[in-house]
Amino acid sequence: MGHGSCIISGLLLFLLLQTSQSESNVKNSNNNHVIKTEVFLSPKFVLEPGLVSNKYYYNIDFPRGHIAIKSFNAEIVDESGNPIPLHETYLHHWVLQRYYYQINGSGFVLVKNSGLCGTGLTQYFGLGAETRKTETHIPDPYGIEAGGNIPVAEGYEEGWFLNVHAIDTRGAHDRLACTECGCDLYNVTVDEYGVTVPREYKGGVRCCHDGTRCPVGEGIFFSGVAERSLYLRYTVKYVEWDPLIVPVKIYILDVCDMWTTVDGSSGSVETHNCEVEYDIEPCPNSAANNGCIHTKTLSASLPSGGDVIYGVGHQHAGATGIALYGEGGRLICWSNPIYGTGDEAGNEAGYVVGMSTCYPTPGSLKISDGEKLTLVSNYSNAQSHTGVMGFFYLLIADSSPKSNPLLLYAPFDEVWKNANLSDFVWPIVVLGVVVVAAVVVFMVLKGRSGRGEGYEAML
Questions:
Q1: Which of 72, 264, 327, 360 is the most core-located residue (most Cβ within 10 A)?
Q2: What is the DSSP string of 261-272?
Q3: At 329, phi and psi to the nearest 5?
Q4: What angle do CA 86, 89, 90 make, to 5 degrees?
């Protein structure tokens, strides 16, 4: 093979390698954002009929590194991995909380969400009985950022803890009363911190803390029903973090928020006291009027607005729905309870087994900075209820997305169709340069072969 052919072949090989590298870069960019799934078990907790477990598990197993969380789901299972129905073990709530801890010390920094509540409802995720049929996935290109740089002193690492509150209602005289944690039913006068429960507090988490018991039939322990070990099985979906991912802020609104405005030297400051629970009195002649509805409302505003990416409510049995409105009465999201109709786990009759969710088209629904919001929580009060809740969980993103989501998350063929033109134009330019260079080299070498020994090198 002549020198000219070798040079031309080398140039073409160089072009092919560079084009291949360009294709590889696009593939790698796409593959780096494949959603990963990891499934974990909490430490075990042991229950027997009537017993309550309300435990905190620190430094749980969780994906490490700089990631974007895409969803978090959980359910109670036994040692064989079988889902446990709510009519056997009622899942009052589970809460996932982020924190920083000192590696060689006792330092602890709670990493709160962006919500309004001062000391409560700081979690990143949290659900209850509705956990199995409530969507938690976060659409592309959004995600909850975790890991990365820790903005505290050196020597700290990120950790996560779970709070799991479960009530064993096997053999209970009144399962609903057990799940609503009536203080008289549980015969509790002091909460888990040793503080006397006020008389006006009729029921709620203060009366069904860890180790308390709900009355059950005496025969239940002689019927073969015994204590058992249970776990919270939780599934985390995530992607590796990329600057093109749009982070979301987490806001949790509580219809029981008793907020006040205090004037200070730097202006007015809002103080939020989220009481978390409330009671519902029965309406008059409730037995004959099942259409009675109890309504509780909250008016508040977020410190900063943006695009609404996701919304869902949290309510208990007896709920008829919870809605969030913006100024002028415009509906932002309505979340309805889903009631079960059978016996199997995820479809237990009489229990709230899911809450409907809202996924607006990104950019189509915005909350303005300081916009007055109204939260409306509705329950049937055909009968009384204690310790009910009315939360609203929102994910809000900056109204100016940083990237084209197709480049991050589309299948490979879609990436090629939707990627920036500049990603692929340069190989064409290189091809043109190579062709011109090849022609010049060919002509020069041809001239050399024609002149033989009389050829003079060009300086």
A1: 72
A2: EEEETTEEEEE-
A3: 80, 10
A4: 60
> DSSP secondary structure string, 120-179?
S---SEEE-GGGGG------TTEEEEESS---S-TTEEEEEEEEEEEEE-TTBS-HHHHH
- Nearest 5°: CA angle at 58, between 120 and 35? 90
CA 138 to CA 72: how far, in whole Å? 10
Residues 6+ apart with CB under 8 A from 177: 185, 214
Look up tokens 């020198």; give the residue. 3
| Type of residue at 296 | K
- Reported as a single tens digit per residue, the pLDDT across 12-32 is 444 444 444 444 333 334 445
Cα end-to-end distance, the chain, whole Å: 26
DSSP state of 43: P
pLDDT tens for residues 367-395?
Answer: 999 999 999 999 999 999 999 999 999 99
From the number of C-beta atoms within 10 Å of its C-beta (0-12, 13-18, 19+), residue 283 rates as middle
159 by Cβ neighbours in 10 Å (0-12 / 13-18 / 19+) ranks as: middle
